[in-house]
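Appendix B.2, paired examples.
Example (i):
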Amino acid sequence: MDGTALFRTHGTGGPVAAQAQLARAAIWSRVFPNSAGWLHLWLPGDKAVPARLEAALSGSEE
């Protein structure tokens, strides 16, 4: 994952499915339509976000 404190770029094999999974965890993302497999994530300064992101990407519920 690459980015800044508020934004990250994340590579995934299925960006549309990953976007839906992240949305269920209240994590905003945007699919790059011209670059298959990449998501742009918005991460607010909430200290709980990294754990929510990890849980959402692994498919576990917290």
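Example (ii):
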Amino acid sequence: MEKDWVKIYYTNQAFRAEIVKGMLEEHGINVVLVNKQDSAYLIALPGMAELFVHNSQEAEARQLLADNPENLS
């Protein structure tokens, strides 16, 4: 990941990361989803899905996450 990107969310459930990503994008936040799950072992050994935003949008993204806790659980 390039140096100006910050991890703001991670989960072992990729669908939750997609939901949060969509919510952030709806508010104009540029988001990168890094899925560290091994496709051969998605059911048996889930990995992590991580969301990154540019550091210039970090504060806004964190505020949106705080204001929308229903997307995180």
